[in-house]
Design goal:
mainly alpha, 10 helices
Length: 211
C-alpha cells in the first residue's frame, strides 16, 4: 500500500513544480522582453524560433541540474560569480544593440524570414539569464534529488520544459498579432530604447551585486 502513497506524493510534487515554473515564467525578465520584441519587430516565425531557442536552453539547464548543478555551485563559489558577470556583460551588449537599432517598416505577413538568429538569441539569453541559474540550482534541483526515481527526474524535466515552451510560444503568438506588429512599427525607436534600458538594468544589477 506504500507504493500508491509514494506515487501520490510524486504527482503532487510535479503539480507544485508546474505551478512554480509557471509563476517564474510570468515574472518579467530578459527572456520575456526578447521574445516580445522579436515578435513585434520580426513577426511570428522569428518569435517562435526564439521561443524554441529558449526551450532548448531550458533543456540544457535541466541536464545541468540533473548532474548536480547545485552541488557544483556550492563546491565552486566563483563559478556562480562568473556566470553572473558573463550574463551581465551579455545583457549590456544586447542593450547597446537594441539602443542603436534603426527603425524598420513592419514586415509583410508573407515576407520570408531567416529565424536562425532569433533561435540562438533565445538560447543565449536563457543560458545567461540569472533567473535560470537560480531556478535550476535551487527550486528544480529540490525536485530531482538522488532519492527520487528516474521517472520522476524525466517527468520533472518534461514539466519544466513544456511550461517554458508553452509560455514562450504564447508570448510569440500574442505579440506577433497584426495589431501588435503595426503598433510597434509606429513607435519602434522609443519601444526599442525602453527595452534596451530594461535589459541594461538587468545587466548592471548582475555586475553590481556579483561580489
Amino acid at each position: 500500500m506504500a507504493y500508491p502513497a509514494a506515487m501520490d506524493q510524486h504527482l503532487l510534487a510535479l503539480g507544485s513544480l508546474f505551478a512554480v515554473s509557471l509563476a517564474t515564467s510570468l515574472i518579467p525578465g530578459p527572456t520575456n522582453f526578447l521574445i516580445v520584441r522579436i515578435a513585434m519587430r520580426r513577426g511570428r516565425p522569428a518569435a517562435v524560433a526564439a521561443a524554441l531557442g529558449t526551450t532548448v536552453g531550458c533543456l540544457v539547464w535541466c541536464a545541468a541540474a540533473l548532474i548536480g548543478l547545485a552541488a557544483l555551485l556550492a563546491a565552486v563559489p566563483w563559478l556562480y560569480k562568473a556566470l553572473r558577470i558573463a550574463g551581465g556583460l551579455y545583457l549590456l551588449w544586447f542593450a547597446v544593440g537594441l539602443w542603436r537599432a534603426k527603425a524598420e517598416p513592419a514586415p509583410p505577413a508573407d515576407a520570408p524570414d531567416r529565424p536562425g538568429g532569433a533561435f540562438w538569441s533565445g538560447f543565449a539569453i536563457c543560458l545567461t539569464n540569472p533567473k535560470s541559474v537560480l531556478f535550476f540550482a535551487s527550486i528544480f534541483s529540490a525536485y530531482v534529488g538522488p532519492d527520487m526515481p528516474d521517472w520522476m527526474h524525466a517527468a520533472a524535466a518534461a514539466v519544466v520544459t513544456a511550461t517554458c515552451l508553452g509560455w514562450c510560444v504564447a508570448l510569440a503568438w500574442l505579440f506577433s498579432a497584426p495589431a501588435a506588429v503595426q503598433a510597434y512599427a509606429r513607435a519602434q525607436r522609443p519601444l526599442d530604447r525602453i527595452a534596451a534600458a530594461v535589459m541594461a538594468v538587468f545587466g548592471v544589477s548582475l555586475l553590481w551585486t556579483f561580489g
